[in-house]
Write the structure tokens for this entry.
Amino acid sequence: MITTLLEIQNTLLLGFKGRKHYSRALYNKINLNNRFVGLVGARGVGKTTYLLQLVQNNEASLYVSADNVFFLEHSLLELVDTLYKETDIRTLCIDEIHKYPNWNQELKNIYDTYLEFKLIFTGSSAIDLARSKYDLSRRVVLYSFYGFSFREYLAFNDIAKIDTVTLNNILEKPQELLGEISLINPIRLFKDYLRFGYYPFSNDFSQRVDFYQAIRNIHQKSIYEDIGTAHQLKTGTLLVLEKLFKYVVNSVPGELSVYKVASTLGKDFKSISEYVRYLEEAGLLRCLRSSQAGKGQLKNPEKLLPGNPNMVYAELIKESADILGNIRESFVLSHLQNAGLAVFYQKTGDFYVEGKTLEIGGKNKTRRQIKGVEDAYVLSDDTVTAFKNTLPLWLLGFLY
């Protein structure tokens, strides 16, 4: 049985060799000395690519997808036992482990029995080891994966290689930073990123329409497979989830709260609140909560935004100037959160992060809405200059 799996792996690696490889900064954060490593994140952000890179560089390893027909007749535990006793393979890379029934119990058994064996798996963002009835939180180290930043998009496409910059340096020293960044037509590059730069697989498609179809497929699989399986939801409920997701993606900017969505969709608040949590866990939505939120408020976001800007263009019913606000704010929140920063909602300004208020807009955006607010900044997407506390929005693209 191992021979068949190795043949499948070799076929995958043959196709993989012709692809462009890019070593992302987040790879350096992954400590592969840990026995069990979990890579979680939304679909399409490069988790499988990372696994294949690991296997390609380690002969004593095996890649297998959890939905392989092999597992119809064999268990994961059985596979590890065979590898351990009959081969020199000591590292197993399992893709999409959430598709394997009872995966958490078998991981625990493997961890406790095969002490010299390493296991690296990818999974849906919806995976929550802490809530598992089998205690895996102290056995598995989890790392989050996310899509390309604007900085990574530029590097991957050989446009520019620029180091990451802290939020404080972006806000406090924008003129200095702009002097160091050498980009021809950064506004055009930024607009390209917003349309198709977040997903590492965008270059696989020569036609934009096909790329957007691939993104819509990701949305469908995330809802109907990942969320549906993780929470054992019926088709009727999943249809509401899809409707909720598309409503948020196609909304104009504003305080789109759970209460407003529930009212608009004609559903009860409790159900919509749960559905929002599912979509957030799957990386389809991002939530902005109040910094003053109590325990109950933590479950009820003040504002809902798409997971990333590419999602908006893929699901857009009709492109209009009104939707740009949704795209801008999705870009800001995705970059701030992916950079590991805690971002909050407040009534004055669009975002509150590290004691600073951020107001987001186009080139004509003024400071009127944040007048009198300390440590407040305006970020505009149609400018290449910085003046006082007004600076280019795209500079946030270098956070990670």
Residues 208-231 form the longest helix (24 residues). The chain is about 40% helix and 15% strand.
